[in-house]
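Re-run requested by the PI after the first attempt was lost when the workstation crashed. Everything re-entered from the original request form. Ligand of interest: adenosine monophosphate.
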Amino acid sequence: MIQRIVFMLIALSITAACQPEPSENPRADQPRVLLISIDGFRYDYFDLGQTPALDRLVEGGVAVDSLHHVFPTKTFPTHYSVVTGKYPGHHGVVANNMWDPDRDARFSLGNRDAVGDGFWYQGGEPIWVTAEKQGMTTATYFWPGSEARIQGVRPTYWKMYDGDVPHEERIDQVLEWVDMPAGERPELITLYFSTVDSAGHRWGPREAPVQEALEEIDGHLNRLLDALETRGVLDEFYVLLTSDHGMSRVDFDRYIMLDDYLDLSKVRVSDWGPAAQIWATEMPVDDIVESLEDAHPNLRVWAKEDIPERYQFDTHRRVPDVLAEADMGWMISNKPYMAGRSQFQLYGMHGWDPALSEMHGGFAMMGPGFVSGSKSPAVRSVDLYELMAHVLGLTPADNDGSLDPFLPYLNSDQAVTYTSHQFDCDGSPVEARVAPAHMALHWQNEVHVLDRIETDEENHHQFEATGLAFEFDQDEASVEIDDRFDADCVVIQ
Ligand code: AMP
Ligand code: ZN
Ligand code: ZN
C-alpha cells in the first residue's frame, strides 16, 4: 500500500512537472480489468473437460474454491450484485422476473424494454458507472444492466444483448478495445457467455453437452489470452473469471404445485421455480404463510420480515410479501403451467440458497497484484465490486462488500494459501478453510463465507458474517448457522 502511494505521488509529481500533452493518459500505468462471466459455470467445472485457458487463469493467479453468490441465485440478481457489491434485497434486481408495486410494472429478462430501462437498476451503482463518473472509459460485451442508463450513465461502449453473436466476434471486439490508444481505450471490459447455462438447463449439470459448451468457450478465451500475451499486455490486466451461479439436477417427479395449497386468484406470484415470490393482493400475508407452512415436506415459507437474515433479502420494495423456497432439486410451479409443458426438457436449475455448494459459481482471478500458485477458500460475490474499484484506483460507491478478504492476497510477494481444519460439531462434521482475512465453513451440502474478526488472544480465531459465527482455538470450536445449527465442536485429529 505504502509503495503504491509513494509510486502514485512520484507519478503525480512527474505528470505535474511535465505539463502533459492533452492526449497523455494519467492512468497509463493503472491496471485494467477484464471481467468475464460464463453463465451457469458451476465451481466444480474446472475439471470437467480440456480447458487450457481456465487452467492458465487458475495456475497464473489465485485459484478460488468457489464464488458464494446472493439470493436468489439467478442471472440478473447475481450479475448485478457482482458489479454493484450489493445484495438483491438492496439493489432491487430481486429476480429475473419481478414486479414493482410503486410503478405496477413487471420486469422479465426477455422483455427488452424493461431490461434496458434504468428504473429497475437504480438501487445499485455498477462498477462501470463508478468508473465513468470518475473519468474512466468502460466497455461491456453484455452484462445485465449494461444496456440501461443508470444514474444517467452507460458504459462508453456497450452492446444490445443478443445471445446469437458468435463467440469469435465477441473476442475480436474485446481485442479491438484492448488495442485502442491509452486515453481512449476502455480500462474496464466485461464479456459474457450463455451457452454453458443453456446446456446445463437442458441436460443437467456436468453432462457431455455442458462440457462441450465449456470447451468451446475455453478455446475462445485461450485465443484472447494468447492475443493479450503477444501484445505484451496480459500482465496489465486483472482477469476475473466469474460465473453467476451453479446448477443442480431437477426432474419432473419433484414439482410442488402451489395451487394445491393456495388459491392463486387471490395472490400475485411474480417469480416461479426454486423459489416463489408471492404478493398478498386479495389474501392477508398470515393466511398465505399458514396455507403453505407444512403444506409440503420439501417447501419452506416466510413472511418478508422472517426471511433468513443471511439472505439480506429485506429492505427493497420489490422483495415480495411472502417467499416460498423449495429444497434444492425441487421446483415450485402450478398445474395450468405444467399442463402445457409436458414435452419440454429441463434437467438443470438454479435459484436456491446461495450457500448450497451446487449453487456456487466458478471463480479464478489473475492480475499484477496476485502471486501465481495462490489459493483461496470460497469468496463472496458482493466483495468483487470493492476489489475492482481498488485495482482500478476508483473510489467505490456505497455497497455491502469488503476488500478485506482480498488484501492479504494483493499485498503479498509470495503465494498465499489456506489451511484446512476438521471438526466434529455435535456429531456433524465441519471443515474450516482458513485464509488470512476470511474463511469458508463447509457444513453438510453448504459452504458459507465468514470474515475474520481481530482478537488479542493468541491461537484464537474468530469469524463472523450475517447470521453466521465460527471460532476455534487449538482443540475446540463453536459454530452458529442461522437458527438452524448451533453447536460446540472438537478437533478431529
Ligand atoms: P438464467 O437461467 O437465470 O441463468 O438466465 C440465463 C439467460 O439470461 C441466458 O440464457 C440469456 O438468454 C439471458 N441473458 C443474459 N444476459 C442477458 C442480458 N443482458 N439481457 C437479456 N437477457 C440476458
Ligand atoms: Zn445465469
Ligand atoms: Zn440459468
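Saved to the shared folder this time. Residues 299 and 332 are 9 Å apart (CA to CA).
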